[in-house]
Design brief:
486 residues, seven-stranded mixed β-sheet, globular, disordered N terminus
């Protein structure tokens, strides 16, 4: 019940790769020897995982604080601890219904009393490549679905969150036998080898560039893949909703994890005639509710110096191009020890700026003016399909019209990101933002082999499909087409 651990800085650690291969083959052998786990066994796994999240709560808090320099403990509890535990408890309560065979229609004229159903069986061994921004939620959350479907799993967390990776390994090794669930830690070389294995299913959460590489590697072994790739999530603010509550929802969501969330609002589309009002409301909200946000314990640190330079560089580029940049906490010197960064608005940036052609993943919010809803919808549709789409309006018909005219992995009306929180709701992308789903019944099915099973009864016409065809088959053809086949 031990986990693999290597120094994350040693990106080409051959020992970790050898150990991954050994673990994988150990699981493959075990899966061939043991029967499918019962629903009771699966519920026990889920209950044990939920309990482990509470048992490791302090270690999880400390690990996130170490990886991010600053990470609010309340946010840790709500997302990483309660998020995983709540999902496990919910799935355990739904498992019997989800796992029950689904009956399907059988035409009695052709197949008599036969029955047909979809049976859900485990796929086998599932690999999980998880990201650094939610190192527990986005590794153990999918594990809930994987275990519910009766599978085994190996998790490879991001090397950018090494403290969290080690706690994740401790949680898994203390909760599950090593031939059921294991954690491997390491860098780029290990991740590359991970994607090359003959998994029964592979889940990757991260950026699109690496996602393409994962998909190509998996395709060599015909491994089914679930990709959750993020992207630039737009917010459409209708003219009837430029108000304090809308701004509070958008900025609040943007500053959760300091914008380092794949479903965070990435840019806002605001009516041109109300652009200045929206900016003033944003300034007022920030100074009223969190005047010291950029240096407070509520401000999550940027994950590392490289990402911090990327974000400050994007702002420098905007300023150098003469774009209006609104510092909501002006004259703040970013402390390299904490990597805390305040919220900044970038007003009407041109399309060739980094803030408009890269996923921001930080506390920068571009605001683009529009003249008509048609223009706003057209702008969204001229770009890659996003992981999330957010609409603010009091007009339910207008909201549904926008939903009907756009495509996204998920969407919210009058809030943001909640589609990624509900354990009952399948979560994933579409097009360039990914494919496949985890969470909810969709997650259970994603990691299940949905096997169609037919049980023959009596009074069928199956013999008509067997040669010779001059008898029963000919009678059916004549009855249907009214002529004798030549």
């Amino acid at each position: 019940m031990t986990a693999i651990s290597t120094n994350p800085d040693e990106l080409d650690d051959a020992t970790a790769i050898d150990e991954l291969d050994r673990r994988f083959h150990q699981m493959r052998a075990a899966s061939g020897e043991q029967n499918t786990p019962t629903l009771d066994q699966r519920r026990e796994d889920l209950t044990a995982l939920a309990g482990a999240m509470f048992g490791f709560r302090k270690q999880i808090q400390e690990a996130l604080a170490a990886d991010f320099a600053v990470h609010p403990t309340q946010l840790t509890d709500l997302t990483e601890v309660l998020g995983v535990a709540g999902q496990a408890q919910y799935v355990a309560s739904q498992l019997e219904e989800w796992a029950a065979p689904q009956q399907r229609f059988v035409d009695p004229q052709s197949f008599g009393t036969a029955t047909a159903e979809i049976q859900y069986q485990p796929k086998g061994i599932v690999g999980v490549l998880s990201p650094w921004n939610f190192p527990f939620l986005l590794s153990l959350g999918p594990l809930v679905d994987i275990l519910a479907a009766g599978n085994r799993a190996i998790l490879k967390p991001s090397e950018l969150a090494p403290a969290s990776s080690m706690v994740l390994a401790d949680i898994v090794s203390s909760t599950f036998d090593s031939d059921r669930v294991a954690v491997v830690t390491g860098g780029v070389a290990l991740a590359r080898r991970f994607a090359e294995l003959r998994w029964d299913h592979l889940l990757y959460t991260g950026n699109a560039t690496v996602g393409r590489q994962v998909a190509v590697a998996a395709a060599q072994n015909l491994v089914p893949v679930t990709l959750e790739l993020g992207g630039k999530n737009p917010v459409i603010v209708h003219s009837d909703s430029v108000n304090e509550e809308t701004v509070a929802q958008i900025i609040g969501n943007k500053l959760a994890k300091n914008g380092q969330i794949c479903i965070a609002p990435d840019y806002c589309l605001v009516p041109r005639s109300q652009l200045e009002e929206f900016i003033e409301l944003s300034i007022s909200h920030t100074f009223t509710t969190m005047p010291d946000y950029g240096t407070s314990p509520d401000c999550t640190g940027i994950i590392n110096e490289r990402h911090l330079r990327r974000l400050t560089g994007a702002l420098d580029e905007a300023r150098q191009r003469g774009v209006k940049v609104v510092d909501l906490k002006p004259n703040v010197e970013i402390d390299p020890a904490t990597r805390q960064m305040p919220l900044t608005l970038v007003v009407d940036p041109p399309e060739d700026l980094a803030v408009m052609n890269e996923e921001i993943f930080g506390p920068i919010l571009p605001i683009k003016p529009y003249d008509t809803i048609d223009e706003a919808v057209g702008y969204i549709n001229s770009h890659d399909k996003p992981l999330g789409l957010y609409i603010f309006t009091r007009d339910s018909h207008a909201a549904q019209t926008i939903l009907d005219r756009t495509a996204s992995g998920g969407a919210c009306i009058n809030t943001c990101a909640v589609q990624g929180v509900l354990p009952s709701l399948g979560f994933g992308g579409v097009g360039s933002s990914g494919y496949g789903r985890h969470r909810g019944v969709e997650g259970f099915r994603e990691f299940s082999n949905q096997r169609g099973v037919v049980t023959r009864g009596t009074g069928d016409t199956t013999a008509a499909f067997f040669p010779p065809y001059s008898g029963h088959a000919q009678q059916i053809v004549d009855a249907v087409f009214g002529e004798t086949a030549g």
